[in-house]
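Regression check, guanosine-5'-diphosphate case 424:
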Amino acid sequence: MANSAIVGINWGDEGKGRMVDLLTDHFDVVVRYQGGGNAGHTVVNELGKFALHLLPSGIFRKGVVNILGNGVALDPENLWKEIEDVTSQGVPITPENLKISDRASLLLPWHRELDGLEEARLADKKYGSTKQGIAPFYSDKYQKKTILAGELLYPEHLREHLKDLMEWKNLTLTRVYGAKPVTMEDLEVWIDVFCNKIKPFICDTGAFLRKAQADGKSVLFEAQLGALRDLDYGIYPYTTSSNAIAAYAPVGSGLPSAKIDEVIGVVKAYSTCVGEGPFVCEMFGEEAEELRKAGFEYGAKTGRPRRVGPIDIVATRYGIHVQAATNVALTKLDVLSYLDKIPICTHYTIDGQLTDEFPFPSLLNDAKPVIEYMDGWKCDISGVRNWEDLPEAARKYVEFIEQNIDCHIGYVSVGPERDSIIIR
Ligand code: GDP
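Current build output:
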């Protein structure tokens, strides 16, 4: 059966979790392939409202197997807390419906601390990290200085490996940052309280996925963040530290041979961005505050107010091209219902030159948005389920975006609930 990926086209928070929750109905397996607990996917369904950080958004569907692939930053502490939180809301999580790759690397206790220490050192030049340890984790992974989840199954080997890593990391903690060293006693508590809890979920998920594909099962790959935060293709250095784009899904999932038949790119009907870095179409003042309130744009993990702006056609087309998106889900169209005129960023100017190409990151600070306006529809559209029933101005807005981003918009979302969707 066909495989699909659901990816973010912009800066993240586009509503990917909501789309995965909707579409998992058609899939047997859902895999998170990169990132960690540093962002949140909000899902609203008949079981309640959930802020997922690391768990795949297919966790609510009976019969769907959810996998945390080798590409994720597996934080045993936060994952265990999330499992407890979601199960306390009546969602069963067992080794049957959640499997953790034995090749996923562990985010270690010092990674979060190092993230905070480095942001503090950078002071007003900070990256705007969520301080979940993601950057120190991925740099250590590429230095081969983390632990694989599968090592938890071999306790003696694990302790020896951890001790070596701890001695090495304490040099950085104490000599570079003047912080307290980590002790083996600290690590024993961490193993006992968190790592041992997630052990039953760890297995060879690569073998599981290969068998699933051989048996004709379909796989949905779930991304975190969006193309503009991708380490290689985003607004470096204000990116995340992993590859969020669809092309990485096979590698980070444990099924490197996978063919992805459909890439569904999630785009918000306006723009939001959390943290530091260039954001060309940013709105300020009252106009921004109104949009932020209308869309409830506050980070799921940190509660930080998100920066907001009109939809950015230049950035969106780029996010679609670098992921070869075959279909777009446009979310939160209902949020724009209060506006008389809807702004759209159609181009940038850089040094007075008009461009519709997304520029090299260093040029983004000099880029100015070119804004056009379309008529608003000024009525509640959250109950609309058919394309023809949308007000003409709303249809024109969606069609304008579609014509300018080189991709069909197959889904229009008009509310956070599972069924608040128009399928075109
Ligand atoms: P993700 O990380 O890409 O999954 O996105 P987030 O969960 O951070 O942000 C999306 C937010 O918008 C969540 O609170 C969703 O419940 C909400 N949401 C998603 N789609 C819609 C929509 O069409 N309309 C409205 N009003 N809210 C939506």
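Comparison notes: The chain has a mean pLDDT of 94. The chain is about 30% helix and 20% strand. No diff flagged against the previous build.
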